[in-house]
Amino acid sequence: MSDKSKKIIKALRWAARILGTLLFLLVLVFAIGEGVPNPSTLSLQERGMFLAWGLCLIGYLVAWRWERLATGMILGGMAAFYIMNYMEGGKFPGGIFPLFFLPGLLLLACGWNGLKTKRPTACGD
Q1: The predicted structure's pLDDT at residue 1
Q2: What gap in Å lies between CA 33 and CA 43, rounded to an integer?
Q3: Full-model pTM
Q4: Hey, what long-range contacts does 108-112 have (CB within 8 A, 24 or more apart)?
Q5: Distance (Å, rounded) from C-alpha 8 to C-alpha 114?
Q6: Within-domain flag for 96
Q7: Residue 63 belongs to some domain of the structure
Q8: Which domain holds residue 43?
Q9: Quick check: 41 and 67 in contact, CB under 8 A?
Q10: In a domain, 100, yes or no
Q11: In a domain? residue 124
């Protein structure tokens, strides 16, 4: 792998980690300001969306250590959230929500390159 490729992968890795942490903090600020909903008042569908969302958010923090696991958590959590949201309201969430996929996609690009070069870890420093 060339030095240029290594620098690009390192930049992708750090962009994913930093963006994921910022998104986590954004949600945390909203949760503190608005309060976390009481699970007993939520429908089964809403509980599922809440869990999927939580999986994604935890994935942002896991990305600092285990990037492959975090990629699955982020993309899987967001995909599940989108599917359940669509089943509940008949449309996909818009606004800022697509941005929550980006850290997972950046980690996926980083890991994909690691697989192509047959490195033992996807995005090791």
Answers
A1: 65
A2: 22
A3: 0.83
A4: 108/71, 108/75, 109/12, 110/9, 110/12, 110/13, 110/16, 110/67, 111/67, 111/68, 111/71
A5: 12
A6: yes
A7: yes
A8: 3-116
A9: no
A10: yes
A11: no
